[in-house]
Design goal:
Order of helices and strands: EHEEHEHEEEHEHHEEEHHHE
Strand order of the largest sheet: 3-2-1-4-5-8-9-10-11-12
Strand content: 15-25%
Number of strands: 12
Radius of gyration: 17 Å
């Protein structure tokens, strides 16, 4: 089984495809990493070198995969950071053509637009996700800020996250995961998942470090687990615990970036787990 991962890449550190590839491979998947952006490092570390791929370059690489006759082996397209809104149609083309070869292929959409009140994607990226991508996505994984952008609801609490989730569910995706939601206990963060008629939350302690790539890692861990077990609650629980173990290690080692190779065993079999609570 293969997963086509269309998102950014960094040469150093673990963001985008650099964060998704190893956990998905460890879970037993072939990973076709198609980079929308290639940078020397995450911009928060220092100004990077590199470039954003054009739609033509993305489509050229995708068409090369398609010409090999491999798309029937692709069980999911994982879409992440696009670099700019112009690359959006190339992602959707890849989803459409993949589904022609495998009708059961999932479209897992991580609408990477920004965080902490700041958009860091050029162009009308919000319109792309709300008007085009959302209606065909099986799974959406916005953070709280991105959920606010997608719905117009300011997601500043668990209660407002519930409102945003209902708005998103009404627009297509069968599974919604919202990360980084402020909890009543300010020492913790909430992750909410909605599927069928259920909504669950999981609370985890805040880990005060630079967490660039944590969302990309969670998306990959959830995707791999969900394809294997078809249980969204178990899958998100595994993903949350795996990400927490990576963040805790980065805090312990005082690292500037996440490190996956040194914690790959605990990432997949974390020592600490967190019990989800049903809200609806």
């Amino acid at each position: 089984m293969a997963i086509l991962s269309i998102q950014s890449n960094v040469i150093t550190g673990y963001v985008g495809n650099a964060a998704a590839r190893l956990p998905l491979q460890r879970l037993g998947f072939e990973v076709w990493a198609l980079d929308t952006v290639t940078l020397s490092n995450h911009p928060a570390i220092c100004p990077p070198t590199g470039q954003i791929s054009t739609p033509e370059q993305i489509l050229d690489l995708f068409n090369g995969i398609r010409s090999l006759g491999l798309l029937n082996k692709c069980v999911a397209v994982l879409g992440g950071y696009l670099g700019n809104a112009e690359n959006g149609p190339a992602l959707l083309h890849a989803v459409s053509r993949t589904r022609k070869e495998n009708k059961r292929a999932l479209f897992v959409c991580d609408p990477v637009m920004g965080d902490n009140g700041r958009i860091y994607v050029d162009g009308d990226i919000v319109s792309f996700y709300t008007n085009k991508a959302m209606s065909i996505a099986d799974i959406m994984l916005p953070n709280a800020f991105e959920a606010s952008l997608l719905t117009g609801i300011s997601v500043t609490s668990v209660s407002t996250a519930l409102q945003a989730i209902q708005n998103l569910r009404n627009r297509g995706p069968a599974i919604i995961i919202v990360t980084g939601v402020k909890a009543p206990d300010t020492s913790k963060l909430a992750t909410l998942i909605s599927f069928k008629d259920e909504v669950w939350q999981t609370l985890t302690p805040k880990v005060e470090i630079q967490s660039h790539g944590a969302g990309d890692l969670l998306s990959a861990l959830f995707t791999g687990n969900y394809i294997q077990n078809k249980n969204p609650l178990t899958s998100v629980s595994n993903a949350i615990a795996g990400v927490y173990s990576v963040l805790k290690n980065a805090k312990k080692t005082d690292a500037d970036t996440l490190s996956l190779t040194s914690v790959q065993e605990t990432m997949l079999d974390p020592p600490e787990t967190f019990k989800p609570e049903r809200l609806k």
